[in-house]
């Protein structure tokens, strides 16, 4: 097992390198970089995230198309000023030198400073992380508390009316994207059109620190109710069906028939024999599911509900072409994701010692 873990850790290095290289190359062709934005602002064009992707001469300048003398947006500006702006953003060096320097810094976990904030990338991530952790933990907790019991009951009552109508509800919930469901919740319950029972923005009220401790708890759950509900709706369908299918597969095996023949009750058979084997896939997949909810599934939810977490940070970084934040978060998220996948494999062996990864090729 130790050799398998060592090989997997070694594979993280080329995987990270490939992902960073691919995204770095794509960014070189992406229009509207920080230099182009600054030049456009100096020309008085007032380019925003919305009209950078538009058409016409103004968007051409914002896109950073170049002439022989340099950026088109630099026409009429002092070349020394343009050179200083390029140096400020680190674009005064060839692309391969910038990529090499980025790799050297990332090996030391030095992700640089944001272009548009007087903070380092690490400081921004630490600042936004509690919001994403809060949303991710509650989403994961509720998803498992709902999906596992529901999946077990569906397996026990397979083919019944309960199984049919719950499957229909699950399919409908799974078919609706979480961001669309979030908008529906806002329209219905957050003052969009009908009721105004829940707040629309943020994780706490402005007077949060003036409230008593029990009022703070209530205010926190009041704000997080709709975002968590929108996240859970799109997360529990897959886990519920996975739980059901796992239990169905185990219930039909020979050892279950033997246990029943010995006179054990259905609950004893289900929870003393079937549960451990059936929960193998669900438990082992928990680390990967958790990291997915933290760093990917919550992005649109954070944007829609204006939650200042990692998802909103990544979205704003892409819109503003804040390259240090983009690549810094990409590096961290990819590294954590790869480590979580490894932990998932190790969890398999802890839950079921019969599984042996050491005898397999990576």
TrEMBL record:
Organism superkingdom: Bacteria
Its family remark reads: Belongs to the binding-protein-dependent transport system permease family.
Instruction: State the name under which the record lists this protein.
Output: Microcin C transport system permease protein
Question: What are the alphabetically sorted keywords of the record?
Answer: Cell membrane, Membrane, Transmembrane, Transmembrane helix, Transport
Q: Which Pfam families match?
A: BPD_transp_1
**Which coarse location class describes where this protein primarily resides?**
membrane
Q: Where in the cell is it found?
A: Cell membrane
Q: Which residues form the ABC transmembrane type-1 domain?
A: 129-344
**Gene3D superfamilies listed in its UniProt record:** MetI-like
Organism for this UniProt entry: Marinobacterium sediminicola
InterPro entries for the chain: MetI-like, MetI-like_sf
Q: Isomerase as a keyword?
A: no
> Has keyword Transmembrane?
yes
UniProt topology in membrane = Multi-pass membrane protein
Membrane-spanning residues: 9-30, 131-152, 164-190, 220-243, 280-305, 325-344
